[in-house]
Amino acid sequence: MTDNPLLALHGISKSFGAGPVLNDLSLAIRSGERRGLIGPNGAGKTTLINIMTGRYRPDAGRIQYRGQDITSLPPHRRNRLGIGRSFQILSLFGQASVGENIRGALLRKHGLGTTAFRRLGHLEQIFAESEQIAALVGLLPVLTERVDKLPYGMQRRLDIALVLAQEPELIILDEPAAGLSAAETRDLIDLLKTIMGDRTLILVEHDMDVVYALADRITVLDYGRVLTEGTPAEVNADPEVRRIYLGEAH
Amino acid sequence: MTIPGRLGPVLSALDAERRRGRGAEALATLLLLAATVGAPWILSAASLNDLGQAILFGLFAIGFNILFKYSGLLSFGHAAFFGVAAYGEALLLQAFPAAPVPLLILAAASGTGVLGVLLGHVCVRRTGAYFSMTTLAIGAFFYTIAFKWHAVTGGTDGLGGFMPAALVLLPGWRLANPSIAQTYELSVVFLIPVALAAWLLLERSPFGNAVQLVCQNEERAAFLGYDTHRVKLANYGLAAFIAGIAGALWAIANGFVSTDSIDLTLSTTVIIMTFIGGSQWFWGPLLGSTIYIFGSDRLSAFTQHWQLWMGLVFILLVLVFPRGVAGLPSMLFARLIGRND
Amino acid sequence: MLRIDQLAARYGRSQVLHGVTLTCGPGEVVCLLGRNGVGKSTTLKSIMGIAGISGGDISFGDEVITGLPPHAVARRGIGYVPEERLIFPDLSVAENLSMGGWRGFGQPARAHFDRVLAVFPRLGGKLRQRGRTLSGGEQQMLAIGRALMAEPRLLLVDEPTEGLAPVIVQALERTLKALAESGIAVLVVESKLAVARRIADRITVMAKGETVFDGTPDTLEACRDVRRQYLEV
């Protein structure tokens, strides 16, 4: 266990009736780390993310962020502490435009999310910033297009853009490459490498190219517990990991 | 949240605002406002009375639509807020006949708004049918109080005789025996700024933006840091407040408040008005209330079954023009360029 | 044998396809490749009768099946695994599988269950779990297993490897090849060229609503322009 981890999970358990999905799981992420989270389907990765971000409450265990107990904090409070997450299944404001989606994220970041006393159209700074972010993920040409009419690859990029727009300290990405073509995946890797800076990243992915490109440490989950943890090289060579997850290739 | 025909245009109003010049819109708005304020010089007494009612119920319907269009919540009990404010205003006038009327109106409406926040705390946790059923129950609850609490509300006899000999508009400015035109101007002077402020709030401010985001995807909004419960609650309180302004003015304009200011019929009438005009436009309910009030007035001159005809019109509109009268231009335009909506 | 000839089709409001020609015969795995949005999913939907066909022909065996409703297409032995999986969220895994093998009476034979569970052993431990509680990847496995329950002669699969762990992807690739070997025609929509290279007997490439290339993986390997222009590789 490291001292002063950014995010620490102690003894997390969670079940949904049929049996435990997470079983007395403990995990610590240091500030600035890039942690990959891999494991077979059903190992509990998304449930773990949901517990980290407050979508579910654990049945047992504690979560600490920068030393503060956040176990019972709701998602919006965790976001305000600096935790941002993307979604495995796209979750966007479909009937709004790309620009509006990004502005929604930005307004909240600047503390203007629900104010009654400003004219939206006069917040030039927000508009400029949203254009910058759209440009960063290559969505500037479709800034005024309605999101649910965009192709999937662009929607995925917007999903990431919403997280990045708020400049969180801890970025949690849940299968960001899902459904992307090979070229789109490469662009995603480049984008993430560029913007990560010294932020902390937790990445759940099945595409091992993405994981190896971005992670400096990998945690392998199986049946709701941590199977092993190590550098990409160590994990790749681990025979048990190969047996339950990686298979022959990679 | 899958009510068809409720979706707005593809381009956001905001992007459109930035692109379009503000000139034409502002001019049109000013002309309309001038016409509204100057109506007593143009219209007959009967038409003026109708117009006054149309604007008053239009604001009430806008209050309802604040919940429907922006939060996606269909309330079957919005008359509760209208009625509570109407009775409240009547009682306030009885108790403080010398107090400035604007203050009393704000007091009644604010009390209604607070009531809305308290009730909303229970209501807005659920959506869809659950929400609607809860509002139905709340409406019935307040109707029953009005009906039974004879000592305060007068029951089915209603509450009258609360109007002071002279209305105090401002300290030093009294209005005795107001004519229809004067009552009309008083209402309009109150209703229009409130409506415009509500429009600014919901269509041009971050608050309104947040309400719509939470409606579209509550989960994502929460994960972006929005306190979604509070946002929904604030909108519910606002909708109650707006209905309260209309209700308070109704007490003054009518001089009499009874249970048909708080019953289910009123709640559903306001829904009908909204859909006739078109719920996807902020001002649609006002258009709908104008059509409804003028229409029913003209119809009732022809037949005592005017409600039947009104109902048929409503059904026709919902089937053929789901976006209401306000949606006609865009429907016709789409037909013209050969698209099927 | 599936034959598609100059198929034109719409999905929703847009004309998505305007010239798709391909074949897929018993015993072969054909991969349909192309960028996101070119109409690969719409092609499968057209076969299943879910998209609006405006031109061209689809035949299966010696029967023309263009425009038949989905249940009629399914009864002719064509199984479909949509990209969205669309499992029944409130039914258990076992019930989902049963639905796949439903013939109108009784339960599907035990052998069908065994075959599916041999491919996806993880499902065996979750037979009584409700569909909505499965993870994304497990739902994918269930969707494919469900289609297999009906013992189709032609299997249409839309992006089967998406979201699956590498070791499962490898098992799935083996399964698809084995299914073809047992006589089933397998048409797979894939976006990953690597997967197609490993499993396809033939590859058909699509661009902007029409087919632009048809050949073996080796032929595609040799055609660098095709790869660069249509597959971004």
- The rounded Rg of chain A comes to 19 Å
- What kind of assembly state do the chains in view correspond to? heterotrimer
Q: Per DSSP, what share of the residues of chain C sits in E-state strands of 2 or more residues?
A: 25-35%
Element string of chain A (H = helix, E = strand)? EEEHEEHEHHHEHEHEEHH
Number of helices of chain A: 9
Count the E strands of chain A: 10
Q: How is this structure best described in words?
A:
- In chain A, 36% of the residues lie in helices and 23% in strands.
- By secondary structure, chain A is of the alpha/beta class.
- A six-stranded mixed β-sheet of chain A has the order 6-7-8-3-9-10, sandwiched between helices.
- In chain A, α3 (98-109) packs across α4.
- The mean pLDDT of chain A is 90.
- Chain B has 341 residues and is mainly alpha-helical.
- Chain B has 15 helices and four strands.
- In chain B, the strands form two sheets. Chain B has a two-stranded antiparallel sheet. In chain B, strands 2-3 form a two-stranded antiparallel ribbon.
- With 233 residues, chain C is of the alpha/beta class.
- The mean pLDDT of chain C is 88.
- In chain C, α3 runs parallel beside α6 (136-149) and α4 packs antiparallel against α6 (136-149).
- Chain C has helices at residues 40-47, 70-75, 93-100, 110-119, 121-124, 136-149, 166-181, 193-199, 217-222, 224-231; strands at 2-11, 14-24, 29-33, 52-60, 63-64, 78-81, 154-158, 185-189, 202-207, 210-215.
- Classes of the chains: A alpha/beta (250), B mainly alpha (341), C alpha/beta (233).
- The A-C interface holds A 16-18, 38-43, 45-46, 88-89, 151-153, 175, 178-184, 206, 208, 242-250 and C 35-37, 122, 126, 128-130, 133-138, 140-141, 159, 162-171, 191-194, 231-233.
Summarize this structure briefly.
The complex is a heterotrimer of chains A (250), B (341) and C (233). With 250 residues, chain A is α/β, with parallel strands linked by helices.
